[in-house]
Specification:
The structure is a single chain. By secondary structure, the chain is of the alpha/beta class. The protein has helices at 2-16, 30-46, 65-74, 139-142, and strands at 23-28, 52-57, 77-83, 105-108, 114-116, 143-144, 147-148. The strands form two sheets. A five-stranded mixed beta sheet has the order 1-2-3-4-5, with helices on one face. The chain has a two-stranded antiparallel ribbon with strand order 6-7.
């Protein structure tokens, strides 16, 4: 599995660069979900030696309530950034399984202002205020912190 290679290389880099202050796991959309899972693995392997920070953009819900609470208790340095009416943070829907986000949400409004949300996993004053499907849009999923989320192409 790829995670095995990531963990081996991370251990090697920690040995080579012992003054590094933290490891950052980051991603957008599906990459945000993967970054969350990788952060959990990194914490279990190197978290005692080097702090792990998680920064995600437009992450879907990954866990049920118990899983969300557990992950939030393990990843202490976490920034889950949402943007206005981005549809992806509303997926999968909480019902019927009870999916819930991890803490802590940072919400970017239509004007680019960023605010820290309550420590609740689903703060109704942040992205959760747009809880009806007709209010959501995919374009907001592509814009974060004034940047369009895409990979450059070599045409």
């Amino acid at each position: 599995a790829v995670i095995d290679d990531i963990l081996v290389e991370t251990k090697r880099l920690i040995s080579e660069f012992p003054t590094y202050e933290k490891i950052v796991s980051t991603g957008h959309s599906l990459g945000a979900a993967i970054a969350t899972l990788i952060a959990m693995d990194l914490i279990s392997v190197v978290g005692q030696d080097v702090p792990v920070q998680l920064i995600t953009f437009g992450s879907p819900r990954l866990f049920d309530v118990g899983g969300s609470e557990y992950v939030s208790s393990v990843i202490h340095d976490s920034y889950r950034v949402t943007h206005t009416k981005d549809v992806v943070p509303h997926l999968p829907t909480p019902m019927p399984i009870g999916y819930q986000h991890i803490s802590t949400e940072w919400y970017e409004d239509i004007y680019g202002n960023i605010s820290e949300c309550e420590k609740l996993e689903e703060d109704p004053s942040c992205a959760s205020q747009w809880n009806r499907s007709f209010e959501l849009n995919a374009d907001d999923h592509m814009w974060y912190l004034g940047n369009y989320m895409s990979c450059p192409t070599n045409d």
